[in-house]
Amino acid sequence: MYNSKISGLGFYVPDNVVTNEDLSKIMDTSDEWIQERTGIKQRHWIKEGSNETSATMGARAAEIAIERAGLDKDDIDFIIFATLSPDFYFPGCGVQIQEMLEMRTIGALDIRNQCSGFVYALSTGDQFIKTGMYKNILVIGSEYHSNGLDKTTRGRGVSVIFGDGAGACVLSRTEDNQKGILSSHLHSEGKYADKLIVESPSIKHWVPEILNSKEEDLSYFPYMDGTFVFKNAVVRFSEVIMEALSVNKIGPDDIDLFIPHQANLRISQFIQQKFKLRDDQVYNNITNYGNTTAASIVIALTEAWEKGKVKEDDIVLLAAFGSGFTWGSVLLRW
Ligand code: ACO
Questions:
Q1: Ligand 1 nearest atom to the CA of residue 322, by list position
Q2: Which of 43, 58, 174, 288 has the most neighbouring CB atoms within 10 Å?
Q3: Closest ligand 1 atom, CA of 324?
Q4: Which residue is closest in CA terms to ligand 1's atom 22?
């Protein structure tokens, strides 16, 4: 069996920065409330009228990752694309990337696991590499949230949190079984699907309904029971981290870098305190990007790597929790 390691990383966010101050001009909110509850100061939102989408941002991030891996697009054997905000109901963004980057007729798979999307995508790619089926897999997380948010006071509990952006990595085969992905764990609990959901459009709420929909039909906007999600997030994050540590027979001190999904700075700080991790063991960037869902971990990992915070042989722990509920972890040796 082979191992898989990350051989290239890249990220892309749209130029347009939206500050908390900007939001307070269009809804009843404040910089103070947003920072105190979430740690977010600004996010990037695709400008209205732009042609950017989850697929186009993903393609930009992917080009950087492939180049940094020292590969050519023809070396990529498979594409995995994680998003909750695809350009189309179908087909998925994976095939769009293939066309945008003019790649061969390789397979492309879309993953719909929201905030855990990147962890699910990495774990899926790892299985294909372990079995020897593929050598280089392009793994992308990308979200275009801003066009789907309720940007009025009614939607403020959700819309202030989310940002647009994309991250990508190339997962490559290595014969060094001490390096790369050492473990991954995936979980879900569908009974809480309705606690964080966008109900429409769906096969249930199909075309005639969309055409006749009244303005007060909120099923097109994300709904979140924030407090309930928060309480479950801190429990599940802790469990999945314990699981990764115990399977790999290591302790919190052995983690060189922990990158949690950037859902809320308060959740990350709670986990940091619980596992007694020092500041230099944790990387957060939600302050500048908001919650970019499937893109958040790979954007943070790329940024940390660019800053020299991820070094050869480092133990890196990635963990996520989100809608579904779904949660999971990936532990790697760099
Ligand atoms: N500005 C000002 N006031 C606001 C805002 C806002 N943007 N949003 C809500 N409020 C008000 C509410 O109306 C409420 O007012 P009331 O007390 O008069 O009724 C008050 O602030 C408190 O609201 P809560 O929703 O209880 O606030 P809470 O402290 O729970 O913070 C938050 C909300 C930040 C959303 C938090 O619950 C959270 O981060 N939850 C977890 C998010 C998460 O982890 N999501 C998972 C990943 S996302 C994914 O998978 C797609």
A1: 50
A2: 58
A3: 50
A4: 157
Q: E strands along the chain, which residues?
A: 3-12, 17-19, 42-44, 78-82, 107-111, 136-143, 165-174, 180-188, 196-197, 223-224, 257-260, 315-322, 326-333
- CA dist 42 and 21 (Å) reads 9
Range with the poorest average pLDDT among 2-11, 27-36, 108-117, 217-226: 217-226
95 in contact with ligand 1, CB cutoff 6 A: no
Q: Is 29 in the pocket of ligand 1 (CB under 6 A)?
A: yes
In ligand 1, the atom with minimum distance to the C-alpha of 160 is: 7
Q: Catalytic residue positions?
A: 115, 261, 291
The CA–CA distances, whole Å, from 2 to 5, 127, 182 equal: 10, 10, 11
Q: Kindly give the interhelix angle for 54-68 and 93-100, rounded to the nearest 10 degrees.
A: 60
CB 155 near ligand 1, within 6 Å: no
pLDDT at 220 over 90: no
| Tens digit of each residue's pLDDT (9 = 90 or more) over 35-67 | 999 999 999 999 999 999 999 999 999 999 999
pLDDT at 219 over 90: no
Where are the alpha helices (H) located in 42-148, listed in sequence order?
A: 54-68, 93-100, 117-130
